[in-house]
Queue: 2 jobs
Job 1
Amino acid sequence: MKNALSIKKITITAILTALAIIAFTLESLFPPIIIPGAKLGLSNIFILLTFFTAGTLYSFLGLTVKVILGSLFSGNFSTLMYSFPSGIIALAIEILLFEKTENVSVPAISTVGSVVNVFIQNLVFCLVTSTLEYISFLPYLALISTFSGLTVGLTVYFLLKKIPSKMFFTIIKEEKS
Amino acid sequence: MDRVKFEKIKSQKPFSKKDFLVFTILFIVIITLFILLIFLSSKSPTKGFKVLIDNEQVLEFDYKTSIAKVDDAYKDKVLIDYDVNKIIVYIDEAKTKFNVILFDAINKTVEISDSTCSPSKDCAYMPKISDDKGVIYCAPHALKILPLGDNLSNSPITG
């Protein structure tokens, strides 16, 4: 039964991760929003959905695969060095917020994650590339990430509301057996 | 994912009262960042710019003389067209990877106008350097453009 459970969760994770990679690659084809590095981060919709449908471990796996393959497919492998640590830390904070706080909504959690993501990304970028001048982009990036996080969070919330519960219930049932 | 939490999300409204606290904290953080940015950024005019690859200087451009001094090691990799204020810096020996730099010696600005670094060409969308605090960085090519302040470098560079 455990194997069946893992296979089902792996399947869900694989599908959502594939969608995340497609979103990530498509987004990388477009110019940045207002300033370099700023984008909607639509791929995070699928990573958050992985967390809510398959669980913590699977969402981290999905994120890792998304960042590595996404960087490869978008032809910009150098982004890996700063988008990977920021993604992991942001997701960890989102999960902690969800698990440890009461009544904080999914859009709010996603917004916090998005802002944390640009903070870490900007800091790592500055340190790795020895361009501390880029710190001056941080306020603008934080502001843009608030809106992008909110967009992602609201999308995840409405998707969770609209996707039939049957899909999730099956998993929960299997978890118990 | 436990069922109780899942049901909670399903029954939740898009926003809750506690979100107010979260968004207030975020608002304060962002406002603080903008205030810090305003107070900490004392900008002054730039006298030129320098281009580096992997933190190694490629060339230095002085707005006053409008002449670029190219490092010996990069002479074959730099193409300068003073008529259209354009510098092409080739990254590889085969000259398939490059960045196109546009300079304006009168208005003392420099920018990247084109690059082969990635489909999104992030570096080409970076703001022009018009003061001593700006920087343009092309991560895939590890190419950096920095402004020159009062002290132009005295490194042995030949043009």
Job 2
Amino acid sequence: MNIASLCTRDVIGIRADAPLHEAATRMCDEHVGALVVVTADEPPQVVGMLTDRDLALDVLGRTPLSTELRAGDIAKYPPVAVEGSASLQEAIAAMEKAGVRRLLVVEADGGVIGLVSADDLVCALAEELQGLARALRRNIQQEKTQRAVFSGPGGTRPVFPSYGTAAMQ
Amino acid sequence: MDIPLTAGQICTRTVVHADRGMMLDEAARLMRTHHVGSLVVVEERSPKERIVVGMLTDRDIATGVVALDRDAHAFRVGDIMSTDVVTVREQDSVLDVLAVMRHRKVRRLPVTGGRGELIGLVALDDVLALVAEQMHALAAAVGAAQHHEASATVGA
């Protein structure tokens, strides 16, 4: 399973020169906790990331208060990114290293694919674990139906001093 | 053996709290200083007994004040906090905590003692940490069983 297969593809953006209330309104309307901050170029370029926490703490928690701030002024640069081909483990390592809970997911050439959050990773891991538990349970059931209980004496255990090549299909 | 399986055992005991009358910019500074995403809003009955009356998250501030482009100095915690707070009791099991989080769609729950007083805060992250720890213990048990089997069959 790679990150491209489990990330959110709906990435909501905001221009770096947009006023902060516009960024907050967009997060509210789109029910997201983070926006990518983009340039005015066409196509736009993702230069940073802005979270609801940034909006709350870096606007109100800052002294003196400034009302002229723009999205680009409090965004975090550059966005922490992983390639879509990265594994779950690589994404976890990237989050741990950067101390963030969201990553931008990109193509090898830098094209944006989506966003992946720590929550997405938890869900993916839980699903894998559940799949493994199911496989183990099925294995026991199958064994019960296919294999008779063995009661005869044990034979000699075949041990090969050196293994040859395996027959491949 | 004392395996933590109740809300009281896994919660954070030092809860960053505020009262309704606190100015919002001070609340934001408090979250920033203590690196937390939420404040438990309390009413103090006595210095040791605080009753939960609300919760305020960083997102509440972003969507409730910044989005409206209003002057943050005009707001107090009580104006935008959520008042329909769900709490769990300290003896509630971790499974109860998870069920409440799932049904009420919240990821943080204040934990209360016998008289309804605030004693801690349990977050989804705390439950995840416990599960991860137990997974590790499970892996160790698998490893121990393999080791046991290997040493038990020698010379058989």
